[in-house]
Amino acid sequence: MHTDVGQRIWTYLRRSPLTFAWLAILLATTVIQHILSPGALDTVLADRSTNIDHLTSNPLRVMVLSLFWLDGGGAAAYWLPYAVAFAIFLAPAERWLGWRRWLAIGLAGHILATLLSEGALALAIRHGLADDSMRNTQDVGVSYFLAAIIAVLTFHIARPWRWLYLAGVLGCYAVPLSISPTFTALGHFSSVLIGLACYPLVRNTMSDQWNPMAGWRGSSPTA
User: Fold this and answer.
1) Per the omega criterion (within 30 degrees of 0), is the bond before 81 cis?
2) b/e 98-120 (16+ beta carbons within 10 angstroms → b)
3) Transmembrane residues, as ranges (predicted)?
């Protein structure tokens, strides 16, 4: 019995190796965040932030390192929502797309949304709409990558559920931007649009769609 359950869990994890390896690294860095003193933690996160100063001096380094830290503290409870999000969104997307396309779409969201949001912030600073101190603001995390993958999953869902899902995704990211138009809210919404723009990369997988009602009706997923 225990062997069978363990084998099922291992099979599930093995089908999305990058998702769960990344999640394990995030757990390790979350533990490190919990151990560090507040001052040392601020130094570590500041050094890995995708802010204007770092993007100007060493963009590749911070684009990579920022993906392995969570902004918001080192409590395990803060990591758990990401574990849920990884299991619900990133793992199914990796199985559906394969790791290469999954990684390409997620990184496109992470990189392009970072450049767009920080570019908008740089313009705001130049025109006196934001304080110059925001050039080295703390900005780490996986949320832009996650938002792009959440968006591209729209094309994995059978109609008409696809449109309900898309409306929910757009609402979740557009409402915060309209209420509080910060550079991070702009980055999240940009990631969603980037994920949707990746349709050409996934259209040859459109026959593999998930129908939420298929199990209830005893039918197979429809395109």
Assistant:
1) no
2) eeebbeebbbbbbbbbbbbbbeb
3) 18-36, 67-90, 102-125, 140-158, 163-179
Say yes or no to pLDDT of 222 above 60.
Answer: no
Give the Cβ contact number of residue 155 at 10 Å.
20
Neighbours of 178 (CB within 10 A): 9
Q: Got the DSSP string for 66-126?
A: GGG--TT-S-HHHHHHHHHHIIIIIHHHHHHH-HHHHHHHHHHHHHHHHHHHHHHHHHHHH
Q: What share of the chain is helix, strand, coil (3-state, %, to 5)?
A: 75, 0, 20
Tokens (6 digits) for 138? 């703390």
Are 130 and 186 in contact by the 8 Å Cβ rule? The answer is no
At what angle are helices 183-197 and 99-126 packed, to 10 degrees? 140
The domains of the chain are located at 1-205
- pLDDT tens string 198-210: 999 998 877 777 7
116: Cα separation from own chain's centroid: 16
pLDDT in tens, 122-154: 999 999 989 998 999 888 999 999 999 999 999
Task: Please tell me the pTM assigned to this model.
Answer: 0.90
Looking at the predicted structure, is the pLDDT value of residue 80 above 70? yes
